[in-house]
Amino acid sequence: MSTKRISPANNRSVAQQVINEISKLSTSSSMEEVASVRAKYNGLTILQQNYVANYRDLLYIEEVQRNTSYG
Fold first, then answer.
1. Is residue 3 one of the residues assigned to a domain?
2. pLDDT, tens digit (0-9, with 9 covering 90-100), for 20-45
3. How far is CA 48 from CA 5, 8, 15, 17, 62, in A?
4. In which domain, by residue range, is 48 found?
């Protein structure tokens, strides 16, 4: 197991990539697009996830998709 330390700037940079992906989503995005961004978010460390300021947007889009897929 690697014990490589990740700098705070790198954590923010990695999180920013996910922030950018979330900002491209909308409620009309495909389920595959949303699932892809969810997987990227889930792949972040807890610290990196804390930098994702628009995470609630992802949750909202997922909720809308769940509600529309069930009618």
1. no
2. 999 999 999 999 999 999 999 999 99
3. 13, 9, 5, 11, 20
4. 8-69
